[in-house]
Design goal:
Length: 455
């Protein structure tokens, strides 16, 4: 039975190796199944051609995030028309399995961690057995869904199928826009998050649990990437890389002990309350050059309302400590959270401009399926997913307008990045071959007033 795992092409300024797909592919290969991974985003393949390339497949697994749900929907329809068994996994299918099956023509959804669930599903279909009772599988005939337990020991998982997502073959469109050196490889050292931020779907996806790989296992993967793929920079994409101090310390010490020469950064963000001066110095010593912090807002009222679990004093302290340690610092900001007003936007911008930050990402609130805000604000799919994720307002607080939020975000980008220090940091790191993707980022975030269109 031939299996293809894929994601469709969609409009984005980030094109990075898809770890989730590659973990599933490696688990199937480890169990002697024939599997091919096709990254249509990287290869710029339209859905019609992608469906043709899946002609020899019996089963096609599609990774789905809400941002490109409509592209997944179109691809699933084309594959079903060609007689394929279609399985959809990823965050969107995990939090909305029933709706995903209803809104697409897919046969099954894989809910949660997909490695073992996909393996058991493929084996059941190969052996002509009904997969309805397999934990983690959701189908139209599901009466009582059986969730799959999380992996307790992440070290039992094989490394992602790097042979299928060779970092050297990806365009210069990394997470974080600019980097020290290519090729860049993403790595996750943990899964999950114990926090309950209202704007995030992680609490539902991971049930507020977190598990860690061993420092040795992580260092083994990094060492392999450097040696076999010539990787010069690692991007840790964890939700909470620094939450457990001994975890990140162990990784840094392994990198230093093995004398692995590699830059690394945290473009997915770390919490401001999970670092101290000692840790930041060790991170720097082991190759870290850039950290991003999930600040979200400069309004304490908003931070409390969304249960961020931090305060302005900690934000200021963490950014200053990271800057003092010699690291490039970045902030993630969300405009349009509940209780946002013109006054709180000014408050946030004032805070960000006052801190020793080199970069800032100003986003418009996206109401993610599975998040507390999705439930409280009663968002409805699938039409909601036609908008540009984080670039068009998914919700407009009372007293504001969508147009005001878009313009405020554009002004914030300009006021922050057009200062000498911040502009200089970006220009020094920018490579000529990245111009196309940086220009697309500028358009996507309407930095100069024009909103990029979806599709």
């Amino acid at each position: 039975m031939n299996v293809i795992i894929t994601r469709p092409r969609y409009r984005t300024h980030l094109i990075t190796p898809p770890l989730g797909m590659a973990y599933v592919a490696s688990h199937l290969k480890k169990n002697n199944l024939a599997v091919e991974l096709i990254d249509a985003l990287k290869d710029n393949i339209a859905n019609a051609e992608l469906a043709e390339r899946c002609a020899a497949a019996d089963i096609v697994g599609i990774f789905c995030m809400s941002d490109y749900f409509w592209e997944v929907r179109d691809l699933a329809a084309k594959l079903k028309a060609a007689g394929k068994t279609v399985v959809i996994g990823g965050p969107h299918a995990t939090v909305m399995p029933q709706e995903t099956l209803k809104d697409t023509l897919a046969d099954y959804c894989v809910v949660g961690e997909g490695e073992q669930t996909m393996l058991e599903l493929v084996l059941a279909l190969r052996n002509k057995k009904d997969p309805v009772n397999i934990p983690g599988v959701y189908s139209r005939s599901t009466v009582k869904f059986v969730p799959r337990d999380f992996f307790v020991d992440l070290d039992v998982l094989a490394f992602p199928a790097w042979e299928d997502i060779d970092p050297r073959t990806y365009p210069p469109a990394p997470h974080g826009a600019v980097v020290r050196a290519f090729p860049v490889a993403p790595v996750t050292t943990s899964r999950g998050c114990p926090f309950s931020c209202h704007f995030c779907a992680s609490p539902k996806i991971w049930n507020r649990q977190i598990r860690f790989r061993s420092a040795k296992n992580v260092a083994d993967e990094i060492q392999m990437l450097v040696k076999e793929y010539g990787v010069k920079e690692i991007h840790f994409e964890d939700d909470n890389l620094t939450l457990k101090k001994e975890h990140i310390q162990g990784i840094c010490e392994e990198i230093l002990r093995r004398k692995i020469k590699v830059y690394w950064a945290t473009p997915n963000g770390i919490r401001v309350d999970s670092v101290d001066e000692e840790l930041l110095k060790l991170m720097k010593k082991s190759g870290c050059y850039s950290v991003a912090f999930g600040i979200e807002s400069g309004s304490q009222e908003i931070l409390d309302h969304i249960e961020k679990g931090t305060d302005i004093a900690r934000i200021c302290a963490a950014v200053k400590l990271a800057s003092k340690a010699g690291l490039i610092t970045q902030a993630f900001i969300i405009f349009g959270l509940p209780k946002e007003s013109k006054a709180t936007i000014k408050e946030t911008l004032k805070l960000v401009l006052s801190l020793p930050l080199h970069k800032a990402q100003f986003l418009l609130l996206d109401i993610l399926p599975g998040s507390a805000l999705w439930d409280s604000l009663r968002q409805q799919g699938p039409e909601y997913f036609r908008k540009r994720s984080y670039q068009e307002p998914g919700y407009v607080p009372e007293g504001l307008t969508a147009d005001y939020l878009i313009k405020a975000r554009s002004e914030a980008f300009r006021r922050f990045h057009l200062r000498p220090k911040q502009a200089g940091t970006l220009l020094r790191m920018l490579k000529l071959r990245q111009i196309k993707f940086v220009f697309q980022r500028v358009m996507d975030f309407s930095i100069f007033g024009r909103l990029g269109k979806k599709g």
